[in-house]
Design a protein that fits this description.
about 25% helix; 3 domains; Lipocalin; about 425 residues
């Protein structure tokens, strides 16, 4: 076969362009949720390994799957910025520095390594779902529910894959000083600072469905602005982007692709107040807009969200996020009160009893109480622990509701 002079250059350009076309771009600003696979002592230059715990979508198909390996480096440390008052009162005098981490590569299923440029933030959160209405539950039913919750938590702790790290972490928490450590299971948001090209052909996109009625369903999204019950007021903007597409019920068409922007506003913001009155926050979404498309009116409310464990977050059926004091508000002071009363017993000077009674100041209090062999020392620590528990659970300001930027949320779209 003979190629003409006009045809040959065109063929060369066509085949040269094929590798460029067979790739997909993840834009800058998308966060990768990474979980660390091992425990690491914090030293600059240490390589760390992790994996994705949330998939990354591109329009309507999964681009990066869960468990995709990710590698990074510890680049240094910085001092803890948050208030240390409670930690000092717990006997932790020297806070460990906070590690600075960057993730710079991920490995695809075919073995290809892709380079990343990321800004990394540690994410200490668990997913909280909308709770069912329990207004009509009797007191005995609520007590039984709490007992069952405690049983489940105990079993989860015993069978947790990171039980060894949890035990070591608890021991460190009892000491006045602990080394800087990245624990197995630590989660990070690695926000892409530059676009990432994922090589390889991708499946043909699904057809777009015309949005005629008010869309309904549960969508996965992430907040693009942080929300805080102490800072935001009624009417403050709330924005998010879809992290997974919303498909038609038959799964054959796309109503809203990944990356579609949701816009709404804060409808309730109540900051935490003194005497343990916790903050509350509610926001709704009013529209979803795709790139280059018209905005569609929606009625979206919060159905699930990530939240730090210390917030004790609860989500009502109306989408209101509130902090629950939990059973510890009553049980902890009562238990400490019993221990304080025990410090007046005949065997209070026993070293073992002194170790039990001297709560609230970590390992240092127990050593001091046992070494002194004086009931007054253990009694003093017991009163200290009781006073601290009463103050933080009954007198101090309540917890704020905080959803930092890139918090993953579930939004329930209703017809009204």
């Amino acid at each position: 076969m003979v190629f003409s002079a006009a045809v040959f250059p065109g063929c060369v350009l066509y085949f040269a362009a094929l590798p460029m076309l067979a790739q997909t771009t993840i834009p800058a600003g998308v966060p990768l949720r990474v979980q660390v696979d091992h425990r690491y002592r914090v030293r600059a230059g240490t390589r760390i390994e992790g994996h994705l715990i949330a998939p990354i979508y591109s329009v309507d198909h999964k681009l990066l799957a869960v468990d995709t390996p990710v590698s990074g480096t510890i680049v240094g440390t910085h001092p803890a910025q948050e208030s240390r008052v409670k930690e000092v009162l717990d006997g932790q005098f020297v806070p460990p520095p906070v590690p600075d981490v960057t993730f710079n590569s991920l490995r695809l299923a075919d073995g290809t390594t892709v380079t990343l440029h990321t800004a990394v933030v540690q994410r200490d959160a668990a997913v909280v779902k909308m709770s069912a209405n329990k207004k009509h539950s009797t007191l005995s039913q609520q007590v039984r529910a709490q007992i069952e919750d405690r049983k489940r938590e105990a079993l989860d702790t015993i069978h947790h894959p990171n039980l060894g790290d949890r035990v070591v972490k608890w021991v460190y928490g009892q000491l006045p000083w602990s080394p800087a450590t990245i624990w197995k299971g630590t989660q990070y948001d690695a926000e892409l600072m530059a676009p990432v090209e994922i090589p390889g052909p991708q499946p043909a996109p699904l057809p777009r469905a015309e949005v005629k009625d008010t869309p309904t369903g549960l969508v996965q999204a992430r907040l693009t602005v942080g929300l805080d019950s102490a800072r935001d007021k009624h009417g403050a903007p709330a924005t998010a982007v879809l992290t997974a597409p919303l498909l038609t019920p038959d799964g054959k068409q796309v109503l809203f692709p990944e990356g579609a922007e949701m816009k709404g506003l804060v409808t309730l913001a109540q900051p935490g107040r003194w005497f343990a009155r916790n903050g509350r926050l509610r926001f709704t979404f009013r529209s979803i807009e795709t790139e280059g498309g018209a905005a569609s009116a929606v009625h979206g409310q919060l159905a699930g969200a990530e939240a730090a464990a210390q917030q004790n977050l609860k989500i009502s059926e109306e989408g209101t996020a509130a902090s629950s004091s939990g059973p510890g508000k009553y049980l902890a002071p009562m238990a400490l009160g019993v221990l304080t009363a025990a410090s007046y017993g005949d065997d209070a000077a026993n070293p073992a009893n002194s170790a039990v009674i001297s709560n609230g100041f970590g390992f240092a209090a127990r050593v001091a109480a046992m070494a002194a062999a004086n009931p007054a020392v253990g009694r003093g620590f017991a009163y200290f622990a009781l006073s601290k528990s009463i103050y933080f659970r009954w007198i101090a300001k309540g917890h704020e509701i905080q959803f930092p930027k890139n918090t993953r949320v579930e939004i329930l779209l209703n017809e009204r």
